[in-house]
Amino acid sequence: MRESRDFLVITFSQTADAMAAEKVLTQQHIPGRIIPIPRQLSAGCGLSWKTEAEEKEKAARCLEAAGIRWHEMEMVRLWV
Amino acid sequence: MIYLDNAATTLMKPRSVTDAVVRAMTTAGNASRGAHSTSLDASRIVYDARVKTAQLFGCSRPDHVVFTCNSTEALNIAIQGALRPGCHVITTDLEHNSVLRPLYRMQDAQGVRLDFVQADRSGKIDLNAFERLKRPDTAAIVCTHVSNLTGEIVDIARIGRFARENGILLIVDASQSAGCMPVDMEEMGIDVLCFTGHKGLMGPQGTGGMCIREGVEIRPLIEGGSGVQSYRRRQPEEYPTRLEAGTMNAHGLAGLSAGIDFIQKTGIRTIMEKERSLARAFYEGVRKIDGVQTYGDFTTPERGPVVALNIRSYDSSEVSDALSVDYGIATRPGAHCAPRMHRALGTQDQGAVRFSFSWFNTPEEVEEAVRAVGEIAGA
Fold first, then answer.
1. Contacts of A12 (CB under 8 A, 6+ apart)
2. What's the CA gap between A20 and A34, in Å, rounded?
3. Which residue, A75, B18, B119, B377, is most buried by CB atoms nearer than 10 A?
4. Which among B118, B122, B98, B102 is positioned nearest to B110, based on CA atoms?
5. Interchain contact, B34 vs A13, CB within 8 Å
6. What is the pLDDT of residues B54-72, one digit of tens each?
7. Considering only CB atoms, which chain B residues are within 8 Å of A25?
8. Residues of B near A (CB-CB distance < 8 A)?
9. In chain A, which residues have their Cβ closer than 8 Å to the Cβ of B47?
10. All domains of chain B in start order, with CATH
11. 3-state secondary structure string across A8-74
């Protein structure tokens, strides 16, 4: 079994928002990367940002400051 | 060959454009279709192109930059997606068929009522006519920035002020101005700016798009795969996905991005001045030739880099063919997809030979072209 633990996952309603978020979060040195949206959060397909739980407030601040919309911010158990 | 058909498409591109396309074709997967590295590369290419396009045109939001295949597709989406049945629209005699035909379609199918600001014999329009044609139910003005036939520049900023004051949507066709002169949506009061990537922006064919001011609602013309919200029955609501169904041309958009980089690095005003000076030198050369008739108003230096002319009563197609076969000079003859403008200029039968210039043309090429026109006129 692959090891898994909780991660913060930020979802977006469309790719342009995910790309904008990737740019801003990377610039702000928030660790993480783009992953496909886990099924717990979306029955569709699309992109999300996977990061550590403690980054939630900073990530939210960065996205808000940049005017980037996100859909959800949820803790999800994912493979490490 | 001397390529002087840049108003149709620019043939000479910066090397960085072709390099970017080749690189993208070997590295980019399908944008917005997964999170593996090649799909993300494609998504990043498309997003970067949105950011650069927004910056170039003064569009406040990159996600309000929608990519299409060309101006025609963008204009169709804007015209058919923004207008309501029975509304009133003001447009001009300068327009290309990419504006006229979608409008005529809306007229025939949706009862949209059209009024035209007429062009005079020199291809100029009276801007006060917009005020005269305005009605209480005027919903939109659809207007070109630069005539593709004469190079006449329309004072979009003034029309934009009029449109804002009267709550009228302003849709602008920037096919001939994008990349050739400054275009700023905010400064000019443009609600929807439609552009193509393969002319002044120096990108590949198959690229283009529209910039949409915040708050402007446009219905999708096509719906389909979006890569997001897959279980939603209809196309997602958010721009740009709302108006972008199907696989994006990420390979082409990589080239468009590189074209915009080239323009920003070179300076849009530097490009504008050079292209204008080439066109002006050509005009000054040919206007003295007996039998040459040019079209448009050359009393102002502020023009698109286009000179349309005829030689005596010769068929413009024959002249263009002779230029191509005998002199290796590429020009465009005929009707230029601008039927109302040809009627205004009186060239509906003869057409016109259009010489159009780009950053990559040289004064020597202009001299050659003037000499060729002189020889054909003297023969």
1. A18, A21, A46, A47, A48, A49, A69, A70, A71, B228
2. 11
3. B119
4. B102
5. no
6. 999 999 999 999 999 999 9
7. none
8. 31-35, 40, 43-44, 46-47, 50, 61-63, 226-232, 236, 238, 240-241
9. 15-16, 19-20, 23
10. 15-266 (3.40.640.10), 268-378 (3.90.1150.10)
11. EEEECCCHHHHHHHHHHHHHCCCCCEEEECCCCCCCCCCEEEEECHHHHHHHHHHHHHCCCCCCEEE
Q: What's chain B's Rg over C-alpha atoms?
A: 21
**What are the tokens at B108?**
């025939």
Dist. CA B289–CA B307, nearest whole Å? 14
| pLDDT value at residue B379 | 61
Which amino acid belongs to residue B115?
D
The tokens describing B360, both together, are 């990559």
Q: What are the residue ranges spanned by the domains of chain A?
A: 4-79
- Summarised one tens digit per residue, pLDDT across range B135-148 is 999 999 999 999 99
CA–CA dist B197, B153 (Å, integer): 19
Does the pLDDT value for residue A44 go beyond 70? no
Identity (one letter) of the amino acid at B74?
A: A
Q: Which option is the CATH number for A4-79: 3.30.2130.10, 3.10.105.10, 3.10.450.710, 3.40.50.1820? A: 3.30.2130.10
